[in-house]
Amino acid sequence: MTSATSPRIVFLDIDGTYASHGAVPAAHADAVRRVRANGHRVLLCTGRPRSLLSPTMLAAGFDGLVCGAGAYAELDGEVLRDEVFPASLAQRTVDALHAHGAISLVESTEALYVLAEARDAMERRAPDGDASALQAAVWEDLRAARRVVESLDGLSFAKIVTLSARAELAEIAAEIGPEVAAVETSIKDLGKGAGELYLAHVNKAVGMAAVVDRLGVGPEHVIACGDGPNDIEMLDYAGTAVGISGGHPDVLARADVVAQGPEDAGLVAAFEELGLL
């Protein structure tokens, strides 16, 4: 673990780390402002596409963003990388998902593209309209980014989320080819074929490295905070790893510091322990 005696670059996972069910604790937003005022850089580092980061989510102010689990990176308003599926691979992926009856959400920098059947499937899962309901903030962002299209053919994207399919997602990925990897969903009630398809060589550390290289420093200056399996490469890359209590066991095994979850504004104490505040 490195100490914060010189400026640090702090990367924050969103869901389960910086935000709880899409809602950012006021204490977390305040802590980000204070950390930046102390001369450190703070960036969000998320599996969400850029299109799913609302003004509310960004309200604290950040030096940059890593989105799409590493496919996209932005620093000081400059886009450093925005990698998408090559066109032929994208079409092969869409065709394979269609052949297996997948209900898909196509994630791009510009929007979340869905067919009408996927929109309807989403709405069946949506909160009942109560703004205080669990996940209400997530759904506000999803609906704002969502674009209903008549076909998924020809779209540019970095990742696809599936809500269901007739085959397991790993089997579909194997049909598509080694360029694509799959992770099954952690949401218990979605069922067979639910998860994410992404470029096999892309992870959060790839996006982080683009930022760190542009800043001309090394990973020893990096602090990364996360809770889920898609944060593992992120924590391995960082000089200091912050895991979230109750997070994935492989995350906690890598943690130099363990913070309480966003429900308890746990990043505040972690930032204090690391000398950022």
Distinctive features:
277 residues; alpha/beta; 8-stranded mixed beta sheet; 9 helices; magnesium ion binding; HAD-like_sf; Haloacid dehalogenase; phosphatase activity; HAD_sf
Report what the structure shows.
The protein has helices spanning 26-37, 87-99, 116-125, 136-145, 169-176, 204-215, 232-237, 249-254, 266-273, and strands at residues 9-12, 41-45, 64-67, 72-75, 78-82, 103-107, 112-114, 146-148, 159-164, 180-184, 195-199, 222-226, 240-244, 257-259. It has 277 residues and is of the alpha/beta class. Strand 12, helix 7 and strand 13 form a beta-alpha-beta unit. Helix 2 crosses helix 5 (169-176). The radius of gyration is 18 Å and the shape is globular. It starts with 8 loop residues before the first strand and ends with a helix.
Principal-axis shape: globular
Low-confidence stretches: none
The secondary structure category is alpha/beta
The count of DSSP E runs of length 2 or more, i.e. the number of strands, is 14
Question: Could you give a quick summary of the protein structure above?
Answer:
With 277 residues, the chain is of the alpha/beta class. The chain has helices at residues 26-37, 87-99, 116-125, 136-145, 169-176, 204-215, 232-237, 249-254, 266-273, and strands spanning 9-12, 41-45, 64-67, 72-75, 78-82, 103-107, 112-114, 146-148, 159-164, 180-184, 195-199, 222-226, 240-244, 257-259.
